[in-house]
TrEMBL record:
Protein role: Involved in the regulation of mitochondrial distribution and morphology. Required for mitochondrial fusion and mitochondrial network formation.
Residue ranges constituting the DML1/Misato tubulin domain according to the UniProt record: 161-346
Residues covered by the Misato Segment II tubulin-like domain: 6-118
Cellular component GO terms held in the UniProt record: mitochondrion
Family: Belongs to the misato family.
Coiled coil: none
Compartments reported by the entry: Cytoplasm; Mitochondrion
UniProt keyword annotations, A-Z: Cytoplasm, Mitochondrion
Any Pfam family hit: Misat_Tub_SegII
Name recorded for this polypeptide: Protein misato homolog 1
Length: 584
């Protein structure tokens, strides 16, 4: 059964989740091989992609994806897509009365989308825009958009033109993938999906019927469905919708894995003090509710905290990114998510979603925290022991869940992944008789090197490891957020580029991530509970509960959150102070 394809269905709920999901799917598409002779790599793409056929007989590969967003969020993207269009035929007009025409100016496409349109029409891009690799026949190129995009060297600067996630979507979606919620607007002040209760109330009537129809379509064509990965906005009303969706998945598909990632941007462009308060309450209710209905729940954000006064976003030493730009912050999270989700997407030694979740969510501790080194600093031509030896004072990863790492606390479980070290040595290559400079240099397997290193920080904690050499391919339109000290493969260069010469375009990067269950999460959840329970919600935000939940349900959710935080207590530290015991 190790080579059986265990399919996954992905749900993306909300605009920022679709930003992260779009970057994540672009990464998957860039690594997808259409050649059966070369498709048996480390990562099993069929876990995520379904094979279909156009009306013209061409084979297609589209994501098993359901993406939900609000009215006005698609701009130039057609909800039904364009992959399976029938040939256009003139329709007979039978209406004989008067007609009134309303002309609407279509949204302008950015240069990247214009190039995609050219490729879809069978045109080839200018040779100056493509790197020098062997060319295929014009017919083959016209059918394989991915082959040209992979060689595309245009310096797209989309920071000023990306308004919605479809502005940088590089692959075709299935006609059943996109679901637009017409009751709420993406833009403007009226009819906004701002509160948890609004989202909860959505999953009924046409929205529920449409979701069930799409789920049945994707589920019924799966032979070995292992579960669902849910990306859900945490700071707006989609948190309420996500709570109902995960509850429905739990009731309808019991025994399948449900891994839920709660997404939150660093900032919102139209935020106000009242909206910040709503964001805090949505995050609180969404966390406790989605955690209870999922195999595990992991917040993903570069925000310094989920309260109203967060600390600064994490600084990655080799990234020049703008945390306030959703196009940038979502790319960092997507690159980390590509590594975090690897264990259940591999050809060999794949771990089912439920097994991965069970190793982390023990004794009711269903909330986990993510950390990532994006990228992991590795010198070109060096070895993994050399790279890790340079990080002996502190682990190289940064918080990706607004939760600090355990400081002398307990780690209940950890899943660490190293991805993208292709071309580098996993062990030292010392000459015979040479004394190893560190214990890491004496080990004979990459897994042993990484395990020894992590255990110097967490000696007795449960640990699972996954090492995959294949890197994430950073083809356009991934933003150019890397510092000039990195080479084309994302490794550190011994010499900086000559003055005046352009920095190399980073086309891949090594990434190391960690999913953890630790005592730090107990403190983090307790602080979340404290922040919400000290609010007089009826006085400061009476409209928040106007569409639900009821006050009794709200108080019950806060009590569930308090009890959840206590699951992470380290029994050896329970009696540290009576005050902490009351809150924690």
């Amino acid at each position: 059964m190790s080579n059986v394809c265990r399919e996954i269905i992905t749900l993306q709920l909300g605009h920022y989740s679709n930003f992260v999901g779009t970057h994540w799917w672009n990464l998957q598409d860039a690594s997808l091989s259409y050649d059966p002779d070369t498709s048996q790599g480390e990562i099993q793409s069929d876990v995520l992609f379904r094979e279909g056929q156009t009306l013209g007989g061409h084979v297609t590969h589209t994501p098993r994806l359901i993406a939900m967003d609000l009215k006005g969020s698609l701009r130039t993207l057609r909800q039904e897509g364009s992959l399976y269009d029938a040939s256009e035929e003139a329709s007979a007009v039978t209406w004989e009365g008067s007609l009134m025409m309303h002309e609407e100016t279509p949204a302008e496409k950015n240069p990247f989308l214009e190039d995609l349109d050219r490729l879809d029409r069978g045109q080839t891009l200018a040779e100056d825009d493509l790197c020098s690799q062997p060319r295929r026949s014009a017919a083959a190129v016209s059918l394989d958009v991915n082959s040209q995009l992979a060689r595309l060297q245009k310096a797209y600067r989309l920071e000023g033109s990306v308004r919605v996630w479809s502005d940088f979507l590089r692959l075709h979606l299935h006609p059943r993938s996109i679901s637009v919620i017409h009751q709420f607007n993406h833009d403007g002040e009226a009819h906004r999906l701002e509160a948890f209760g609004q989202g909860e109330a959505l999953l009924q009537g046409p929205v529920l019927e449409q979701l069930e129809d799409k789920l049945h379509f994707f589920v019924e064509e799966c032979d070995y469905l292992q579960g669902f990965q849910v990306l859900c906005d945490l700071a707006n009303g989609f948190a309420g919708l996500g709570s109902k969706v995960t509850e429905m998945l739990q009731d309808s598909y019991g025994g399948r894995g449900i891994l839920t990632w709660g997404l939150a941007p660093v900032s919102h462009p139209d935020s106000t003090p009242m909206r910040e308060l709503y964001h805090q309450l949505n995050c609180t209710l969404g966390t406790v509710s989605m955690a209870s209905h999922s195999s595990f729940f992991c917040p993903l954000t570069l925000r310094g905290g989920l309260g109203r006064r967060p600390s600064a976003p994490p600084a990655f030493p080799y990234l020049n990114y703008d945390p306030s730009l959703w196009y940038h912050s979502s790319s960092v999270l997507a690159l980390a998510l590509d590594a975090l989700t690897l264990p259940y997407r591999l050809h060999r030694d794949s771990v089912p979603m439920w097994q991965m979740a069970d190793s982390l969510a023990v004794s009711g501790r269903k909330v986990v925290a993510a950390y990532g080194a994006v990228p992991l600093p590795m010198m070109q031509g060096s070895s993994l022991p050399d790279a890790l030896t340079a990080c002996t004072e502190a682990l190289p990863w940064k918080p990706l869940s607004a939760c600090p790492e355990p400081d002398n606390g307990r780690l209940y479980g950890q899943w660490a992944t190293l991805k993208g070290y292709e071309g580098q040595r996993l062990t030292s290559s010392l000459a015979p008789g040479t004394r190893p400079p560190t214990p890491l240099h004496s080990l004979n397997r990459g897994e042993d090197v990484l395990e020894y290193y992590i255990r110097t920080f967490y000696p007795s904690s449960p640990l699972a490891l996954q090492l995959v050499s294949s890197p994430s391919k950073l083809t356009p339109p991934f933003p150019r957020i890397f510092t000039p000290s990195l080479g084309a493969q994302g490794f550190l260069q011994s010499q900086p580029p000559p003055r005046g010469s352009p920095a190399p375009v980073v086309s891949s990067a090594p990434v190391m991530t960690s999913l953890q269950s630790s005592t730090s999460l107990g403190s983090w959840l307790a602080e979340m509970h404290r922040g919400a329970s000290t609010l007089d919600i009826c006085r400061v935000a009476p409209s928040f509960l106007s569409q639900g939940p009821e006050m009794a349900d709200y108080r019950e959710a806060l009590e569930e959150l308090r009890l959840l935080s206590r699951c992470y207590r380290d029994d050896s530290m329970i009696h540290s102070s009576s005050e902490e015991s009351d809150d924690y």
